Amino acid sequence: MKRPLALFGALAATVSLAACGADSAGGDDAGPPRPGGTLRYGLSQAPTCSDPAQAGSNQTIYVARQIVDSLVDQDPATGKIVPWLADSWTVSPDARGFTFHLREGVTFSDGTPLTADSVRKNFDAIVRLGGVKAPLGASYLAGYTGTTVVDPQTARVDFAAPNAQFLQAVSTPQLGILADADTAKSADERCLGTNIGSGPFTYAEYKQGASATLVKRTGYHWGSAVFANKGEAYLDRIVFTVIPESGVRTGSLSSGQLEAVSDALPQDAPQIEAAGGKVLTFANPGIPFGLQPNVTRGPLRDPAVRAALRTAIDRKELVDTVLGPQFKPGTSTLASSTPGYADLSDQLRHDPEAARRALDAAGWAPGPDGIRVKDGQRLSFGVLFSAVFAGNQAILELVQQQVRAVGIELRLELVSGNEATARQNSGDFDVTYYNTTRADGDILRTTFGVDQRNLNRRGPIPRLDQVLTDELAATDPAARAQLIGQAQRLVLDEGLWIPTVELSQAIGAASTVVDLKFEASGRLQFHDAWLRGR
């Protein structure tokens, strides 16, 4: 079969994220920043919801992140937690209580002030939205018992059990703070582009599935400590347009119709660079792309099948053939830029003979067409995925070829993002394929915890469950990193995740764009960006 053509060429605050390899647009010779102008941005996929709490895909978060501030921020260069809406905070010794002292003078775009009661209403609302509508935010608030308004500018957030990951969690857009008018709305009402945040931009127009326009928030002066610019954003306006075709995005960038685009392909880089532009890259932390089996149905109930998948996949070939040099093979159940990452590449080495031996020993015998059979059941299953990343289909087509060589049949099931979410929530899948970005190893708990997202549909695994619980209680960074390392190994040993490749963001930016940056989890930050040559 023909190979696919290449598509793509806190408690842990002391952990360095410098390995992420982030770029920013512009250069030292750009001169002083110049306010004004409209940055036109081409998204590769449509935003799914304007609400930061419900945002899941990178394309959605690129938009929603700009309208909402968080209590704290995470420095992308060091991993350190730094002030934003809260200028100071304390954490109880048992990591059950988090007290935030809010900055004075912060207002939402409707003119209402930020108060400790705003924090309470936001977290209460995310718990009400729940794990179906706001899976990440709800998982970060697991065990939440409430927020106490100590005084108008002081909020104490309490949990029933230790929750050491929470300080980093409140740096994410999913726990960003919206005005009271939003926290009273239903989940669907919060997706209509009327959200009111305290961020450097506000929604001017939102057309579901087509475009979003943001305008600068006049008077903004409470930006994150990470921001270089301490006042209002430089850009007057950002216009996001959905352009699924990569060639059209690149052509529009090179011809000056757009200033920046998502998912710049390696073969398009010469065209972008010939026009004076640049491709900005960032290696995403979190869970790398991979296969998550539903262990309650079909052949994936057999641990031997899951073990065979682990060694049947040639991850280097995926990168070399389908992707490009800014990508890395998956080498663990965490991406290599994540705090607490453990290199498990020895267990993920391509070894088709080992895969065949595992299947032979488990009684899966080759059938007449090469696909194995056991007790009358073919070793065949569907892989549920959506095109949230442009390379997903080509990656899975190559994986399909690789595993067929050892007698496993993959059936690719490409669906919309909404259908993928619905089927994941109902358990209507054999294997689902995706990634999750977060600059904290606790993403293992929220993804694989038996009482969390748990798309594996697994029952108790005492050793893994204990490690994930202990990680939440570990306030010492070294001890927590050790537990996160153990969790990575156990997830892999149990076959709950079969990694493929690590995601890297690749953003095409015109020569006019300066200081377009990535935040710690690889999402774009437009506050410091400006346009030269205006």
Characterise the protein shown here.
There is one protein chain. This protein has 534 residues and is of the alpha+beta class. The chain is built from 15 helices and 27 strands. The strands form eight sheets. The protein has a seven-stranded mixed beta sheet with strand order 8-9-10-1-11-23-12. β6 (144-151) and β7 (154-159) form a beta hairpin. α14 runs antiparallel to α15. The radius of gyration is 23 Å and the shape is globular. It starts with 37 loop residues before the first strand and ends with a strand.
Give a brief rundown of this model.
By secondary structure, the protein is α+β, with helices and mostly antiparallel strands. Helices cover 26% and strands 22% of the residues.
Task: Provide keyphrases for this structure.
alpha+beta, 15 helices, 27 strands, globular, disordered N terminus
Query: For the report, how would you describe the main beta sheet?
Result: 7 strands, mixed
Arrangement of strands in the largest sheet: 8-9-10-1-11-23-12
**Helix residue percentage:** 25-40%
Gross morphology is globular
Task: Name the average pLDDT.
Answer: 92
Number of helices: 15
Structural class: alpha+beta
Distance from N terminus to C terminus (CA atoms, Å) equals: 51 Å
Low-pLDDT windows of residues: 1-22
Strand content: 15-25%
Quaternary structure of the protein:
single chain
